[in-house]
Structures are given as structure tokens and as C-alpha cells.
Amino acid sequence: MKQCMDSENLHRRLKKIMGQLNAIDKMIDTDVPCEDILIQINAAKGALHKVGQIVLEGHLNHCVRDGIEHGDADKTIAEFAKAIEHFSRMC
């Protein structure tokens, strides 16, 4: 949900990640050592993981809280457990 996320922050982070990915793509076509490429891949992966963490925190602080306070707590908790499962697969 848009209202539970700091979309400006997320867009800024995603643009940075896209820049990292474009740089990695260019590195592949040049004579850059494999280790340096792997370092950059890991940096992009870490940045993407942070975006997921921010989305998950926003979901918890807004959507889950609202669902528990104004809706079906059991359903909300089950949906949050699914969200955590999806996030944990990123690692």
C-alpha cells in the first residue's frame, strides 16, 4: 500500500540500485576482475535487501497495526507471516 511506505525514499534507493546494476553490466563487457564484479553484485544485493526491509517495516507499522486494530487480527497475522516468508527468501 502506498500510504504505508516512504515512496520517495524507496524510489531514491531503487534508482541507486538500477545505477549499480547498469555499472555491473558495463563491468562485464570490460576487463574488470571477477572479484570486483562480485563485490558490486553483493553491494547491489545488500541495497535491494534494505529496500525489502523498509517495505516490510512499513507494512508492519501501518498495514499490520491497522489490521489488528480495525480488522481481523488472525487474518492480519497470517498475512504478515506470509510477508515475512517472502522477505526471508531474498537472503
Q: How would you describe this structure in keywords?
A:
single chain; 91 residues; mainly alpha; Methane Monooxygenase Hydroxylase, Chain G, domain 1; 3 helices; metal ion binding; Metal_Tscrpt_repr_sf
Give an account of the 3D structure:
By secondary structure, the protein is mostly helical. The protein has one domain (6-88): Metal-sensitive repressor, helix protomer (Methane Monooxygenase Hydroxylase, Chain G, domain 1, Up-down Bundle), CATH 1.20.58. Helix content is 82%, strand content 0%. It has helices at residues 7-28, 34-70, 73-88. Helix 1 (7-28) packs antiparallel against helix 2 (34-70) and helix 2 (34-70) packs antiparallel against helix 3. The mean pLDDT is 92. It comes from Candidatus Scatomonas pullistercoris.
Spell the H/E element sequence.
HHH
What's the mean pLDDT score? 92
**CATH homologous superfamily title:** Metal-sensitive repressor, helix protomer
Supply the number of structural domains: 1
Describe the structure concisely.
InterPro entries: Metal_Tscrpt_repr, Metal_Tscrpt_repr_sf. The protein is mainly alpha-helical and 91 residues long.
What's the helix and strand layout?
Elements: H1 7-28, H2 34-70, H3 73-88
Helix pairs in contact: 1-2, 2-3
